[in-house]
Amino acid sequence: MEKILEVKNVSKKYQNKEGEVLAIQNVNFRVGKGEFVSIIGPSGCGKSTLLSIIAGLEKKTSGEIYIEGEKMEGISPKVGYMLQRDCLLEWRTILSNTMFRTRN
Ligand SMILES: Nc1ncnc2c1ncn2[C@@H]1O[C@H](COP(=O)(O)OP(=O)(O)OP(=O)(O)O)[C@@H](O)[C@H]1O
Ligand SMILES: [Mg+2]
Hints:
Blueprint: E1 3-16, E2 19-32, H1 47-54, E3 62-67, E4 70-71, H2 94-99
Antiparallel strand pairs: 1-2, 1-3, 3-4
This protein binds adenosine-5'-triphosphate (ATP) and magnesium ion.
């Protein structure tokens, strides 16, 4: 099956006032073309952290992410991410929310 996403040994440590928080450690998985994957787990296990890293919104501490075989650094236009809260621009239609992109 054609590989769309590969997550290799990805770990993330956050720094807060009390010290380091190890949010995810050595996460490995692949997603093939057309596959539908759910990530489930208790609150605080690192689901949002992992998705934010894949979307390029959060920096990983270590590991690599490949999108269609290309090593990903930062935000990729190939990845879309819908947050737990919808965060839509209320004055736009659903279509124009979907079409919205920042200049760069
Ligand atoms: N910005 C941050 N600074 C410090 N620690 C953080 C930060 N964001 C998340 N964490 C910690 O990292 C761990 C994973 O959090 P994350 O939000 O990824 O979990 P989650 O699985 O998405 O939880 P939920 O099901 O409640 O959404 C938790 O221990 C959390 O407290
Ligand atoms: Mg979450």
